[in-house]
Description:
Blueprint: H1 2-22, E1 35-38, E2 45-47, H2 52-59, E3 63-64, E4 68-70, E5 75-79, E6 82-88, E7 94-95, H3 106-113, E8 118-120, E9 127-132, H4 140-144, H5 149-153, E10 155-162, E11 168-175, H6 176-182
Antiparallel strand pairs: 1-2, 1-7, 3-4, 4-5, 5-6, 6-11, 8-9, 9-10, 10-11
Amino acid sequence: MKKRILVVLMVVVLISGCGQAAKLKPDAFLDRDMCIESIHERGTNICFGMSRTEVESILGPGEGDDIEQRYDAATIYYRNDKIVGIQLTEEFWFQTPRGIHVGSTKEEAEERYGSRYMHPATPNGMLYSFYQFNNNPLGLQAIKSKKSDEEMEGIYEIWIMVDKQDVVNNIKLLDERLSVEMWYW
Length: 185
């Protein structure tokens, strides 16, 4: 009987430990950080690298062109029919896997993403968070160095912009190549 109780306890501990390992920790990056989740429909996720067809099966057709498709809740950016950027500007539709959405506070974003790789970028409090594809964080100097298109496609950026009241009003998940290209649009 004691062995049975011990086995049950070990299983419970293992299961609860697995849940903790999957939790997103501040100052760490996982591929799922490049996704957005529906606030209203659990399990409805749109992730970096998904095809246009997959996105349209979730959101329907958007408005725009081959590169940029606008929806009520998000703008999706494509390269070769795969997502390379996601922008959120509307409240109460989507959030990041860390629970940050338009309307969250700067403090909440810093708490959930950490501050080690977040950099104030403009006077209005824009925060940058840079990560390389293999999960090695990069500082600002590494981001600013000259790279090939292929290298830039392997660097992910998370932009969290806030207004003067420190409320999030724009979230962008994108690769560095798209980030650079946006400056020329």
